[in-house]
Amino acid sequence: MADRIYLFDTTLRDGAQTTGVDFSVADKIAIAEALDEIGIDYVEGGWPGANPTDDTFFTEPPKLKGAKLVAFGMTRRPGRSAENDPGLAPLVNSKANALCLVGKAWDFHVDVALEIEHDENVAMIRDSIAFGHARKGEAMYDAEHFFDGYKANPQFALKCITAAYEAGARWIVLCDTNGGTMPDEVERIVREVSKHVPGDHLGIHAHNDTEQAVANSLAAVRGGARQVQGTINGLGERCGNANMMSLIPSLMIKMGFDTGISPVNLKKLTHLSRMLDERLNRAPNRHQAYVGESAFAHKGGLHVSAVAKDPKTYEHVEPECVGNRRHIVVSDQAGRSNLLARLDDLGIEMPGEDKIRLLLDSLKQQEFKGYAYDGAEASFELLARKAMGEVPVYFRLSRFRVMDDRRWSARGELVTESEATVTVKVKEEEVMRVAMGNGPVNALDVALRQALVECYPTLQHMHLVDYKVRIMPPRADGTGTDAVTRVVIESADAEGHRWSTVGVSANIIDASYVALRDAYTYMLYREGVR
Ligand SMILES: CC(=O)SCCNC(=O)CCNC(=O)[C@H](O)C(C)(C)COP(=O)(O)OP(=O)(O)OC[C@H]1O[C@@H](n2cnc3c(N)ncnc32)[C@H](O)[C@@H]1OP(=O)(O)O
Ligand SMILES: CC(=O)C(=O)O
C-alpha cells in the first residue's frame, strides 16, 4: 500500500502574509470549507489573538467534515510559564482542533532576534508544546529556520526538535523559512534528522525564494518526511510557500503517494485554484503548472498537429485528472491543424475547405494589424462563429465621445473625471446615454451598458475584472503602419465565468471600445440571446 502523506494547508495563515492579500472572515470560511471538501488533512486558519479577523474566524469557525482546524501561534515568551503566557491563552481557548507553534531552531536567531540563552529557547519549545498537547490533544512544532540552523549548529537545531518531540509534538515541521536551501541539502538533512525523530513525525514547510519550494518539499518527502505544508497557488510571505496545486498532483500522480485526496476530488484542484483568485479579485496565473489556463495549451503548429493524433505527444498528464482542459491556441504560429482543433473544441461544425482557408487568412490579417487571440479566446470564438454566420448583430455603434477632466475643486482638491456620450442602434432604435466614470474606459463602459441594458438586461450581471494595454511598435520591416495599441479586457459574470476580448486601434479608447463590444457580444451569444 502507498505511504500516506498528510497535507497541511497554510493559505489562511502564511498565505495571509502575502503582500496585497487581505482575507475577510467570509473569505477564510469559504476557503477553509473548499480545502476540507477536497480532503486536506489540516487547515491552518490563522493566529488567534493576532488580529480581529482571526479572532472572529476562530470564535465561529466553519464546521469541517474531515480536516482538522489548526490555530497557529508562537512559543511562550521568555521568563514566563506557558500557562501564564498571554499569547498561548487565545490558542488553547480557541475552537481549533490542533495547535501549530513556531519556535526558533537557529542559534543565530536566538542570539539576535530573541536575545536569550539557548537553554531558555529549548525550554520555551518544550513547555509550550507540552501545554498545547495537554490542552488540545494535538500540538505540532514549526521549527523556524531549521535548515539554516542545522547547517550552522546541528546539535542545537536537533536539541530544539527533540525537545518538542519528547514533549508530545505530533509533528515536527522542518521549516526552510528563508527559502534558500537547495533540494539535495533538504533531502540529506531530512534523512539525517529522521535518525532522531521518526519520518512519520516529520513535516516540511518550504518557502519559494529560489523558486524551489515544491522541489524542496518533494525532496523532504524522499528524505522521509510525511507531512507537507503549502498554500493554494503558492501564496505566502515574500516569494510565497510551496504551491499545493503542484505538490498534490506530483505527490499522487508522479510519486504514487496516498494523500487522502481521492482521484475524484483531485479533479476539483483547478476550480480550487481559480476560486482563490476569484476571492482575491485577481487574474489567475495562466502559466501555473497543472491548473493554469495555459498548462495544457498548445500553440506551435507542430505541437498541435501531433496533439491531434495523440495528446501524450505534448502533455505529461491528462488535463482532466486535475480538472483542467486542453486548449488549442490560435495565433500566427498556427497552421490548419490549430484552427481545426480549436473549432472542434468550440463545438463548431467542420466547415468546408473554402471557409477554413478564408478564416485562416482573416486570422493572419488580423494578427498583422496587431490582434492576438491567444489571450483573448472569446474574441477568437466570435470571429470564427461570425465567419460561420452564427452571431447576430446585437447593436451598432453610431458614435461615442469621451471627455477627460482634471481640475481643482473650490476646496482646492484635485478632481479627475471622465464623461462618455454614446449613441447606439439597438433593434432599429437609436439610444443615447451619457455617463461619468473614474476613467475614460470606465465611463465608456457605463454609458454603453446603460444604452444596452434595457434591451439586454443580462448585461447588468457582467463586470470588468482586468484591463491590459500594450503598445505595439511599428513593424521593423516597414510593412505595417504606425504604432498601434492593443487592449485586452477580461470580463466576468455573476457566476464567476471569465472571458477575454481584444481590440486594436491607433487610439487607446477606440481599442478599448472594440474589446468592450466583443465582451458584451460574447456574453449575449453565450447566454443564448438571439
Ligand atoms: C516565520 C513565520 O512566518 S512566523 C509567523 C509570522 N507571522 C506574523 O508575525 C503575523 C502575526 N503577528 C502579529 O500579529 C504580531 O507579531 C503578534 C501579535 C504575534 C505579536 O505582536 P507584538 O507582541 O507586538 O510583537 P512584535 O510583532 O513587535 O515582535 C515579536 C515579538 O515576539 C518575539 N518572538 C519571536 N519569535 C518568538 C517565538 N518563537 N517565541 C516567543 N517569542 C518570540 C520577538 O522577540 C518579539 O519580542 P519583543 O516584543 O519582546 O521584541
Ligand atoms: C513557520 C513559518 O512560516 C516559517 O518558518 O516559514
Automatic annotation (TrEMBL):
The reaction(s) this protein catalyses: pyruvate + acetyl-CoA + H2O = (3R)-citramalate + CoA + H(+)
This enzyme's EC code(s): 2.3.3.21
One function term, GO molecular function aspect: (R)-citramalate synthase activity
Pathway the protein takes part in: Amino-acid biosynthesis; L-isoleucine biosynthesis; 2-oxobutanoate from pyruvate: step 1/3
PROSITE patterns: AIPM_HOMOCIT_SYNTH_1 (PS00815), PYR_CT (PS50991)
InterPro entries: 2-isopropylmalate_synth_dimer, AIPM/Hcit_synth_CS, Aldolase_TIM, Citramal_synthase, LeuA/HCS_post-cat, LeuA_allosteric_dom_sf, PYR_CT
Keywords, in A-Z order: Amino-acid biosynthesis, Branched-chain amino acid biosynthesis, Isoleucine biosynthesis, Transferase
Top-rank EC class of the record's enzyme: transferase
Protein origin, superkingdom: Bacteria
Protein's GO biological process: isoleucine biosynthetic process; L-leucine biosynthetic process
Domain spans labelled Pyruvate carboxyltransferase: 5-267
SUPFAM superfamilies assigned to the protein according to its UniProt record, in alphabetical order: 2-isopropylmalate synthase LeuA, allosteric (dimerisation) domain, Aldolase
PANTHER family tied to this protein: (R)-CITRAMALATE SYNTHASE, ALPHA-IPM SYNTHASE/HOMOCITRATE SYNTHASE
Family assignment from sequence similarity: Belongs to the alpha-IPM synthase/homocitrate synthase family.
Protein name from the UniProt record: Citramalate synthase
Species of provenance: Aestuariispira insulae
